[in-house]
Amino acid sequence: MSVGRDALFYKNDHERRGQAIIFAHEKFDDLTLSSRECASHDTAISRRAFEHLGFEVMVHRNLTKANFEQKLQEVSRQDHQASDCLVVVFMSHGNVSCNNKEFLWTRDGKVDTSELWKNFTPDKCPSLAGKPKLFFIQACRDENIDKGVAMKRHKRSLKVQTDSISTQEDYVIPLHADMLRMWASYPGVDGAWQEYGSLLPAAAVTREVAAQYDESCTGQSDLLHRNNKTPYMGSTLMRHLYFPV
């Protein structure tokens, strides 16, 4: 068992930290899609960050839809018993379909965003059951623009202290438990930032991007100038997660 039912922290003392798989897309067969010149730079930042945390990093560039889906299935079938967790990073274009369903672009076609995690539920990947699975998506989520609002500066802090309790009782977990999904932008918003590789808590990353970065498009329309981005996180993690370095 990877962790007891009442444990407050995920275990991070396995033989390996785990895999960090980066899918980076720069060029596309569809000529209406612009080339993503930032892909190599952002991939290098991500690689350094996850290697610093002890992950085994694997980078896949410009995969076709078939190869992308095949690679995720291969990873799902591997034995992760000796790993703490799994990380998947996807960098590409994205949007929503006419039925309001989000999708991402591989080199030669679209895939539903859910393809990233559907192979890693406990019934399909038992060796990751009860372990954190982290998904980071750098892609647009629509064509809307976030202009933001002005805020006065203020400071606030919150400290949380917990005690770790662990039992070895058998228990059942939901199929989509123990997952964190973090997008570079809020649902329905255009744009995706990834400009630095600081190892910060998710809330700190969101605050840094939302408050410190804006999009400068000098000489272009006011619609595209000084837009803001807000990273967005959805989590079913049931315990605290930290990586000692």
TrEMBL record:
Residue intervals of the Caspase family p20 domain: 16-144
GO biological processes: apoptotic process; positive regulation of neuron apoptotic process; proteolysis
Pfam families in the record: Peptidase_C14 (PF00656)
Signal peptide: none
GO cellular component: cytoplasm
One GO MF term attached to the UniProt entry: cysteine-type endopeptidase activity
Highest taxon above the source species: Eukaryota
Recorded family membership: Belongs to the peptidase C14A family.
Protein name: Caspase-1
